[in-house]
């Protein structure tokens, strides 16, 4: 199973960006999808998670109400819509897949290479 993220880039504070993650194949081991991020000098942290059906969705408090995770099963693609971005959203964003939907990295066996998001003032 391979995951490939795209859509990162430079965005001004208050703006929007949409990240995409294409999954090479869907199996029982990719039931749950998630986004994590890692800012410079910090540990990787949970952002959002969902099943492909859209149930069991979870969001970190820091992004709740601003970020929305969605799926397109026909295209094996997961999205992270980032609205009203803040300087503190600057990080490398990683897509992950696993057999469960959870907020822990341990829930996910497959990871993408990451895509950089930089928020400017």
What are the salient characteristics of this protein?
four-stranded antiparallel beta sheet; globular; 49% strand; 121 residues
Give a written overview of the molecule.
The chain has 121 residues and is an all-beta fold. Helices cover 0% and strands 49% of the residues. It contains no helices and eleven strands. The strands form two sheets. Strands 2, 4, 5, 6, 9, 10 and 11 form a seven-stranded mixed beta sheet that branches. A four-stranded antiparallel beta sheet has the order 1-3-8-7, with no helix packed on it. Strand 5 and strand 6 form a beta hairpin. It is globular, with a radius of gyration of 13 Å.
Average pLDDT for all residues: 96
Number of strands: 11
Q: How much is the radius of gyration in Å? A: 13 Å
Order of helices and strands: EEEEEEEEEEE
Shape: globular
**Sequence stretches where pLDDT stays below 50 over 5 or more residues:** none
Task: Output the structural class.
Answer: mainly beta
Cα distance spanning the termini = 37 Å
The percentage helix is under 10%
Described by its quaternary structure, the protein is single chain
The largest pleated sheet is described as: 7 strands, mixed
Helix count?
0
User: β content, as a range?
Assistant: over 45%
SSE layout and pairings?
Elements: E1 3-6, E2 9-12, E3 17-23, E4 32-38, E5 45-51, E6 58-59, E7 67-72, E8 77-82, E9 91-98, E10 110-111, E11 115-120
Parallel strand pairs: 2-11
Antiparallel strand pairs: 1-3, 3-8, 4-5, 4-9, 5-6, 7-8, 9-10, 9-11
């Amino acid at each position: 199973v391979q995951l490939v993220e795209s859509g990162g880039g430079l965005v001004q504070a208050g703006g929007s960006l949409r990240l995409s993650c294409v999954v090479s194949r869907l199996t029982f081991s990719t039931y749950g999808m998630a986004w994590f991020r890692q800012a410079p000098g910090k540990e990787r942290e949970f952002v959002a998670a969902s099943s492909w059906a859209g149930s069991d969705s979870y969001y970190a408090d820091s992004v709740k109400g601003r970020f929305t995770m969605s799926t397109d099963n026909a295209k094996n693609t997961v999205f992270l819509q980032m609205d009203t971005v803040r300087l503190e959203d600057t990080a490398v964003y990683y897509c992950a897949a696993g057999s469960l939907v959870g907020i822990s990295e341990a829930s996910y066996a497959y990871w993408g290479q990451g895509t950089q998001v930089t928020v400017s003032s």
